[in-house]
């Protein structure tokens, strides 16, 4: 949890996001924010991930003066529909059956709040995946093996999920896991924290 030398805080309880942030080699604390992630009626997916990323960062920033607070949130978009975490195996299998042979867009919102001066930046990154033609047996095996019930889109890029895809398209593959590191490094540099000059 918190380190005495860290002025960076990740507003997330996700171990996947922590593993990504670990790659930058910066000391940081992490706090799991408690927010309502329900989409507003008619809310566009870009607005949703912006709002949730900023809400997570704001919730944690309340108790962390003199820190840089990172918030992030991700949704899958398929045929114009926003898909969240499946929650159970049946829903995960149903989502993956719909995705078979199709393209799915993932939007990951990213927020950085500087509680020293109240400034914040919010953006989002897009990443597209094209799924292979998948059989019912392949989908069933994958869901049973990986249990991706808390992952938007019903898969985990970090594990066996890579076997589901025909093609990946985007600027930063970390976006698909849930924390766009290239853009995060840009925001951190703008806030005076360069990962290459800690």
What's the topology here?
Layout: E1 8-10, H1 15-22, E2 29-30, H2 45-61, E3 68-78, E4 81-83, H3 89-99, E5 103-114, E6 119-131, H4 136-146, E7 165-170, H5 174-177, H6 181-190
Structure write-up:
There is one protein chain. This protein is an alpha/beta fold. The chain has a single domain (8-191), classed as Maf protein (Alpha-Beta Complex). It contains six helices and seven strands. It has helices spanning 15-22, 45-61, 89-99, 136-146, 174-177, 181-190, and strands at residues 8-10, 29-30, 68-78, 81-83, 103-114, 119-131, 165-170. Strands 1, 2, 3, 4, 5, 6 and 7 form a seven-stranded mixed sheet that branches. α3 packs across α4 (136-146). The protein is elongated, with a radius of gyration of 17 Å. It catalyses: N(7)-methyl-GTP + H2O = N(7)-methyl-GMP + diphosphate + H(+). The record marks 16, 74, 158 as: Important for substrate specificity. It is found in: Cytoplasm.
Overall pLDDT score: 92
Name the structural class: alpha/beta
Under the CATH scheme, the architecture is Alpha-Beta Complex
CA radius of gyration = 17 Å
Sheet with the most strands, sense and barrel status: 7 strands, mixed
The CATH topology corresponds to Maf protein
Beta strands, count: 7
Uncertain stretches: none
Task: Please write the CATH class name.
Answer: Alpha Beta
Instruction: Report how far the terminal alpha carbons are from each other.
Output: 20 Å
Order of helices and strands: EHEHEEHEEHEHH
**How many domains is the backbone divided into?**
1
> Level of helix content?
25-40%
Q: Looking at the structure, what is the overall shape?
A: elongated
Q: What's the tally of helices? A: 6
Strand content is 25-35%
